[in-house]
Amino acid sequence: MPATPSNVPEPSRTDPALLRNFCIIAHIDHGKSTLADRMLQLTGIVEDRQMRAQYLDRMDIERERGITIKSQAVRLPWAPSQSKDTPYILNMIDTPGHVDFTYEVSRSLAACEGCVLLVDAAQGIEAQTLANLYLAMEHDLTIIPVLNKIDLPAAQPEKFAAELAHLIGCDVDDVLRVSAKTGEGVKELLDEVVKQVPQPVGDADAPARAMIFDSVYDAYRGVVTYVKVVDGQLSKRERIRMMSTGATHELLEIGTNSPEMTACDGLGVGEVGYLITGVKDVRQSKVGDTVTRFNKGAEQALAGYKDPKPMVFSGLYPLDGSDYPELRDALDKLQLNDAALTYEPENSVALGFGFRVGFLGLLHLEVVRARLEREFGLDLIATAPNVVYRVEMEDGSEHVVTNPSEFPTGKIDSVHEPVVRGTLIAPSEFVGAIMELCQARRGSLQGMDYLSEERVELRYTLPLAEIVFDFFDALKSRTRGYASLDYEPTGEQSADLVKVDILLQGDQVDAFSAIVHKDKAYAYGSRMANKLRELIPRQQFEVPIQAAIGARVIARETVRAIRKDVLAKCYGGDISRKRKLLEKQKEGKKRMKVVGRVEVPQEAFIAALSTDGEAGEGAKTKK
Predict the structure, then answer these.
(1) pTM for this prediction
(2) Which CATH architecture has domain 312-383?
(3) In 10 A of CB 266, how many CB atoms?
């Protein structure tokens, strides 16, 4: 019989033997958030009249796109059917499934002792399923295999249960079958969580140590820090110390999420909750830091998280230059909420002052930009995304290039680009189409395995620059939507790369520069020149648009001049008078071409950069 909120034990210092910390991991769209909804209802902490789909997804953008972006922790009371004793306390974390938010998943796994590996009974194991499974294995977690969506007409539970059992190394009977939509099998799953997931281990009498695994910024209450207590206990109104920064604060409030914030007296070993100190400085709360007491605190900090490495860089500039301070504050607050975000100031001749921002992928870029515009009311231009290159010169010097404008001139010895190991899973009939696509993107096949007669896993090494734009769109279209992709960085390789500059009347426009492979330089230059010819308004003089590699022009388009009819006032008279007027106009045009400057309107920047940057727009719904 499910426990109700009224018989939840006092949250302060629950016996660790009654605690179970677990998270739900899966490929995107396999039903994690729906399963979390059923658990909230079954345990009684959300009443039916308050229930809504994707209850734990708090952001508008999550609800619109139907994806989880932020991990959410919630405390659930549960009395197993065979137990009549005190209800257990389950700390459940619903995680994202998209490859761009793997860092969120890894932090969630570090706060748990077990995980529920969810697989769609109609689609089977996909690329992110494998990636998340390997992450869980690295953290040495107890894995509970579960097949979801068994109520679908297309479900094949027997077939995919065998695949899942083979992958994990368990019996087919150990794979649980649930329907998160109807609630079938969810009670049994909660019972298995209590039975299989080990209790948290820690020393209740040791100095307090709590790991910060997430934090958010509240405009009224300041920084809200989410922690898991490993040793000792934390109580409200005591002074705490952040071990990496040495900053000390008074705990104004301490509590748990059930699923809304619920204050309590304190947190003990293994408990997950939140801390509020009233601090407004977002740099005071760092994800991965250890919290301890100010008096008689711990000496040794907990092992933190591995810092994520940005995969894609893009420049973010405010449309109105006076919004620059607001953009800086917005990025500060967003970085607290999204620990994978990195940024540094930069300026562009064409776009003014802005920031060079590092993202984990194209969907991450889309989401961050949308959040900055919605939550902070900013109007932004984003430059075309690019990756980090390492350039070695003949004189032995080395340059790290995150922006094409930083690409060095002079004698270059070699250019190194980042490469990733991609895992692609698809029906076997599409193997030829996938191989053709990967080879066109300079990929090399590392291996191929058949998961079953119909499904194959291909492993490719690919340059990151080739997959951050429209690779996923092309993959989906060639496989009728059946293929799934996951990738992880594996180092770098030397490549024949060049910088293509766009010149307007001989002046370089830094915002349109790009680093591309030599074989694709002409295509990029020609495409950008064509686009700018349509977007730049006509002047009183002819404007040449050129694409160049160094001093060599590889493509050219011309914006024709607006010609004033100087002969309109000539009616009759000698031809020499007309010729004199035309010659005078010609001289004026020549002089204007020398002294005139082409101002690129803001709208042209937005159109040229956004259409080029949205080549991977399908990444919005990347699965």
Answers:
(1) 0.69
(2) 2-Layer Sandwich (3.30)
(3) 20
